[in-house]
Write a structure and sequence with these properties.
The complex is a heterodimer of chains A (800) and B (366). With 800 residues, chain A is an alpha+beta fold. Chain A contains 20 helices and 41 strands. In chain A, the strands form 11 sheets. In chain A, strands 28, 31, 32, 33, 34, 35, 36 and 37 form an 8-stranded mixed sheet that branches. A 5-stranded antiparallel sheet of chain A has the order 6-5-4-7-10. In chain A, strands 13-16-19-20-21 form a 5-stranded mixed sheet. In chain A, helix 14 crosses helix 17. Chain A is elongated. Chain B has 366 residues and is α+β, with helices and mostly antiparallel strands. In chain B, a hairpin with a 4-residue loop joins strand 7 and strand 8. Chain B is built from 12 helices and 11 strands. In chain B, strands 1, 5, 6, 7, 8, 9, 10 and 11 form an 8-stranded mixed sheet that branches. The chains are: A alpha+beta (800), B alpha+beta (366). At the A-B interface, helix 8, helix 11, helix 13, helix 14 and strand 28 of A face helix 5, strand 1, strand 2, helix 7 and strand 3 of B.
């Protein structure tokens, strides 16, 4: 809502300054979004009298003027306007003034060798209109030397954001009422122009849709003269950001902007038969005033006559019956539409308008007759004509809400103690009826225009916002005794420690979009599940919910590589999104890692740059799983990391054969290609929801004393089939003598010379921990035999 | 006697002149070795009479001692010189670079979420979470925005074409407020929670991204009023920005899920082109900026969430996490939060060891 100070003062008797008014507006919940003071814009521009005008000696189109600005020292000004002439009055911008239209700072200068001490301005240069054919011509009585801002009546314009619960403040009068309640002045009664109505309304008006249009009032005014509006009206509309169109249109807009009351004027000559509020027929069309055609359906209320639809009720009128300069007879309509239906229709048509904004929030049901009379009176006064009596179809909601309101609630809910008398004053100044025996009789009757008031809490809000929220004092929340209790859930603790463990491993935490391009989601789809795509994505790149964390990180790695980054070590902790059986989501907490580019740069020690490999991914996966408290010693390395991974260089880490805790490995070349990023890239995903929670752990660790006897190590090298997984051999050796073997570590893998085709050599270091007594030679021999036997079961043969 | 003396002098001279451990060893063998003249001379003592021995022994013994001492000293000197020479050969250029360890970082949003959790834990708030893909009942209806409510349209909601099995619309949550509903339904009242997380609006420009982070706060108890809300936000901001001069301005506003509704402004000043929170917004050089929405939870919302409004009341607030992170740590471009650029992450991110704690101050200074 924008309005000028002058307009506000039409309704509010006040001596407050603009600054005071703005402070008050902010304080009562009408947030000031901006104040524009044209006087500031027009500083340095004066009413000036052109004394002489002579041709410029060196330019045909320029004249040299002497201009009087009232101080007795006429200035020489060069001017190119064709209408500049001796004797005229205009507007002179003095050196130092800033031209509003282009921000140019005027200065004393020489134009084609002739000194010029300012600029005579056009309407457009001062942003007062479009005209640029010549300089402004002021009437002869314009007082020379006065500031043009004062002469022009420059008027500050205030813009406020009206919250959707306050349609009553979508008119200047409502804002004036709130300000008066705040003590900023006195609200003036609405000045109703007098007129004499003659004869019944010649048009039949009917509502066939009592639900969508409970009240449908109108009257005809015959013999009007349309044309431009008077200056006062134009100035008000312009201050609200509305372009003046014609008197009849401007007056309906004035009613809407001034009083929050939309109305419509039809050209009577364009109507045939009864004018009816009814549901639209399926597929019925109307060409609206915005020159677009809308196709309607039976959920929408329209105003139509015998021949066609003339108005999308409460939203926008039709082009056909709109008033024009030639209109002589008008039908004025003022109606009450069901807010919900207006909103639904507007959303369905994608059509917004000032009328819709007001109707869908709810206009004042008690302001139909007065609104119509006000509009009629203004038309008769300014456009002439003879008004008929009002015709009324249906009736607006008329039962006021009555709320039992205990003044003590203001303190209990609002935290501020406001005297009963003051509470009563505030409510009454806002139009609420409070009985003289209140609060003994707690009933407060709400004005019909305040649809937003639902219960006592709303009345607390009214009292507190007018009394001043700044009077609410801070009160400490009651505090539990002692030190604050821990609140984090196991899942939260898990994510926190993983995040810091990952960062401590040299990874940068990224946050990427939860949505992906559809192809990327498809590429990482789990199984055959199609991507979960938004109905109204903001762009093709943000369309499908991510089924994995890797695509977002891969795209980040690509952006980084494109920017010349040598490496990206990124991780993210976030959710993957899947459909659940009930139609809602199954959101799985996940940690993703992408390692792209160089692991180590070329160096004087290390030689060539080294890329990341699958073991880097494995190391991170295990390290982080360990940080997450997963039993890493029991994990199995298995396959099926997914089609997005290199089939021979990827794996899953599982707890038992089914529970996948992580997948890791090198990204498949086809995936790299799809994401248009250079490899090799290693990646990890940890599935946090699969990590078993630590059960009932106490603070105390299990008892432990380091063994007194020293551990011994023995090395074994086995010739095994090339296809044997080293992990299987290790597990077999480990299990050969669980009592004594405490560690098995692969320290060499070799194939080639000396190793038969189809085989490889795996060397392991076995750690043996003696218990009570040291190992004797016979013990060691027995253990070694068990180790060799265990390896033999896998086809392993001890090398000599 | 003279013989021994001159022999000793000659041996000592040879030892002193030895330039290697080998020549020194040769000298040792020549003197103290089994066949060395000192050893042989010592052996002659066995065949002497006690008188002869008393006369001859001291000279021989002292020659032996002098030579042994000289050998020992020379050996140490030679070994030390050799070690020094070896170490000199082992000199390396330590201006050469050592292998770099990559430094990781924690994202500012995560860091600030941890800070929030830490501060609010002290005030007795637990951290609650909820789904990001919601149904319209939790996101709107239960928050007092029925289907026809104009505020619904103002939320720029992302919808899915799907419906839930009970025919509700499926959408991306537009705020963290549905977590209020879920938490109250799950645990009832009294309750104190914060709910940080991702939220989504179909909005994208220089200062808006379609995904961003919010934190919801909710306190429901028997006697909670607007004064408690004000104190809680003041207390939080003082702890978060670690300064005592935080001034909040409450302005009446409108949210369907609160009544009364309050917009929260915080006073700030511009220092070096940056907004610095603190001071009264009306003071010279200061201004107010909107920092969050809040209010007393609407009785209808309590009813939807299964809490009896006749018995319980309380407040809720919502803050933009990205925004307060920017204010505290000086980032100026929201879009960069979601870019994954290691340069930005290294600059604005946090060390993993900057775990917020109350005793060290929750914030991490640059």
């Amino acid at each position: 809502m924008k309005f000028s100070l002058t307009w506000l003062k039409d309704y509010l008797e006040t001596t407050a300054t603009v600054a005071e008014i703005c402070d008050a507006l902010n304080a009562i919940g009408l947030e000031v979004e901006g104040v524009e003071d044209p006087a500031e814009k027009l500083a340095g521009f004066r009413v000036a009298h052109v004394l002489t005008a002579a041709r410029h000696p060196d330019a045909d189109k320029l004249q040299v003027l002497t201009v009087d600005t009232g101080d007795g020292n006429p200035l020489q000004v060069v001017c190119g306007a064709p209408n500049a002439r001796a004797g005229m009055k205009g507007v002179l911008g003095l050196p130092g003034a800033v031209v509003p239209a282009n921000g140019m700072v005027l200065k004393k200068s020489a134009i084609r060798g002739v000194e010029s001490n300012g600029m005579m301005c056009s309407v457009r240069e001062l942003e007062l209109g479009e005209d640029h054919d010549g300089i402004i011509e002021l009437p002869d009585d314009a007082p020379v030397g006065t500031s043009f801002a004062d002469y022009h009546g420059a008027d500050p314009v205030i813009e406020v954001a009206v919250t959707p619960n306050r349609p009553d403040c979508m008119g200047v009068y409502g804002i004036a009422r709130d300000l008066a309640a705040k003590g900023l002045g006195t609200l003036k009664p609405i000045a109703m122009p007098a007129f004499a109505a003659a004869g019944a309304c010649p048009v039949e008006m009917r509502t066939d849709d009592a639900q969508g249009c409970p009240a449908f009032y109108g009257r005809v005014v015959q013999g009007v003269t349309n044309g431009p509006s008077p200056d006062w009206l134009q100035a008000r509309l312009k201050s609200a950001g509305q372009r003046p169109i014609s008197l009849l249109v401007d007056l309906t807009n004035y009613l809407m902007l001034g009083y929050g009351r939309p109305a419509h004027a039809y050209d009577l000559a364009k109507l045939q038969g009864a004018v009816v509020a009814r549901r639209a027929r399926d597929g019925e069309q109307v060409l609206a005033l915005n020159e677009k055609t809308y196709t309607l359906d039976p959920e929408m209320t329209v105003i139509a006559d015998d021949s066609q639809v003339h108005d999308i009720a409460g939203i926008m009128g039709g082009e056909h019956s709109g008033v024009s300069d030639g209109t002589t007879d008008v039908l004025l309509e003022i109606a009450y539409f069901d807010p919900a239906r207006i909103g639904a229709t507007g959303r369905k048509l994608g059509l917004s308008s000032d009328a819709r904004t007001r109707f869908e929030r709810g206009v004042d049901p008690a302001f139909l007759d007065d609104g119509l009379d006000l509009l009629t009176g203004l038309i008769v006064e300014l456009a002439g004509g003879t008004p008929s009596e009002v015709v009324r179809a249906g009736s607006p909601p008329a039962a006021p809400k009555v709320i039992a309101f205990d003044p003590g609630l203001t303190l209990r809910l609002g935290g501020v103690d406001v005297a009963e008398g003051e509470q009563k004053r505030i409510l009454e100044s806002l139009g609420f009826s409070v009985g003289s025996d209140w609060p003994k009789n707690p009933d407060v009757t709400c004005p019909l225009r305040r649809r937003d008031i639902e219960g006592p809490a709303d009345l607390v809000e009214e009292v507190v916002r007018i009394h001043g929220l700044d009077t609410v004092a801070s009160v400490a929340l009651p505090r539990a005794e002692g030190v604050a209790r821990p609140t984090a859930t196991p899942q939260q603790k898990l994510e926190r420690s993983l995040r810091r463990a990952a960062a401590a491993s040299g990874l940068n935490e990224a946050i990427t979009w939860s949505f992906l391009p559809e192809w990327a989601a498809e590429h990482f789809a789990a199984g055959n599940e199609p991507p979960w795509v938004l109905a109204n994505p903001i762009s093709e790149d943000m369309k499908a919910m991510r089924p994995a964390l890797l695509p977002g990180l891969l795209m980040a790695a690509k952006r980084n590589a494109d920017r010349g980054a040598v490496s990206s070590r990124l991780f993210e902790i976030g959710r993957r999104y899947f459909r659940a059986a009930d139609g809602l989501s199954d959101e799985k907490p996940t940690l993703g890692i992408v390692l792209a580019g160089e692991k180590t740069p070329r160096g004087w020690q290390a030689g060539k740059a080294k890329p990341f490999d699958a073991y880097d991914a494995k190391a991170l996966a295990l390290q982080l799983l360990e940080a997450a408290g997963a039993p890493v010693a029991n994990l199995m390395v298995m396959g099926e990391a997914g089609a997005q991974f290199h089939p021979g260089q990827s794996a899953t880490l599982r707890l038992g054969p089914k529970v996948v805790l992580a997948r890791f490995g090198m990204v498949h070349p086809a995936t790299l290609k799809a994401f248009d990023v250079d490899g090799p890239i290693a990646a990890v995903e940890l599935f946090l929801d699969a990590i078993p929670a630590k059960k009932g752990a106490a603070f105390a660790r299990p008892g432990f004393t380091p063994p007194a006897l020293q551990a011994v190590t023995r090395d074994f090298a086995f010739l095994v089939p090339a296809s044997l997984a080293a992990g299987d051999l290790v597990r077999a050796v480990q299990g050969a003598d669980k009592a004594n073997i405490t560690g098995v570590r692969v320290f060499d893998v070799f194939a080639g010379q000396g190793v038969p085709e189809g085989h490889k050599s795996i060397a392991v270091e076995v750690t043996l921990q003696p218990g009570e007594a040291s190992f004797k030679d016979a013990d060691l021999k027995a253990i070694a035999e068990k180790v060799v036997a265990a390896a033999a079961k896998l086809g392993g043969e001890l090398r000599g | 006697m003279t013989d021994i003396t001159s022999q000793t002098e000659a041996a000592l001279a040879a030892i002193a002149a030895a330039d290697s451990l080998d020549t020194l060893e040769a000298q040792r063998l020549e003197t103290l070795g089994k066949k060395g003249w000192v050893s042989l001379a010592l052996k002659t003592l066995g065949g002497m009479t006690p008188e002869e021995r008393t006369a001859a022994a001291p000279a021989i013994q002292s020659a032996r001692a002098a030579i042994a001492e000289a050998l020992e000293a020379k050996k140490a000197a030679l070994e030390s010189a050799e070690l020094e020479a070896q170490l000199a050969r082992e000199t390396i250029d330590l201006t050469l670079p050592a292998a770099a360890t990559p430094k990781g970082s924690v994202h500012p949003v995560s860091q600030v979420m941890d800070e929030l959790a830490e501060i609010f834990a002290d005030l007795g708030f637990a951290v609650a979470t909820g789904p990001e893909i919601e149904d319209d009942w939790h996101n709107f209806t239960a928050l007092n925005m029925d289907e026809t409510h104009p505020a619904r349209a103002m939320h720029d909601t992302f919808y899915f074409p799907d419906k839930t099995s009970d025919s509700k619309d499926v959408l991306l949550r537009t705020h963290t407020s549905p977590v209020q509903i879920r938490s109250m339904l799950a645990q009832g009242a009294p309750i104190r929670i914060i709910a940080p997380g991702r939220v989504y609006r179909s909005d994208s420009d220089a200062t808006h991204t379609p995904m961003f982070h919010q934190v919801e706060g909710l306190v429901i108890d028997k006697d909670i009023h607007l004064g408690h809300l004000k104190w809680t936000l003041e207390t939080f901001f003082k702890a978060f920005f670690e300064r005592e001069d935080i001034v909040l301005r409450l302005r009446p506003s409108y949210f369907p899920f609160t009544e009364p509704s309050v917009e929260v402004d915080v006073g700030y000043s511009n220092e070096g082109g940056r907004r610095v929170v603190g001071g009264h917004g009306d003071a010279p050089g200061h201004a107010w900026m909107e920092i969050g929405g809040s209010g007393m939870v609407n009785a209808r919302v309590l009813e939807f969430a299964g809490v009896d409004p006749a018995e319980y009341q309380g407040f809720a607030f919502g803050l933009g996490i990205d925004r307060i992170a920017m204010l505290k740590y000086g980032m100026n471009d929201l879009r960069a939060f979601f870019d994954g650029d290691p340069r930005w992450l290294a600059h604005y991110g946090f060390s993993p060891f900057d775990q917020p704690t109350l005793s060290a101050g929750v914030g991490a200074r640059a």
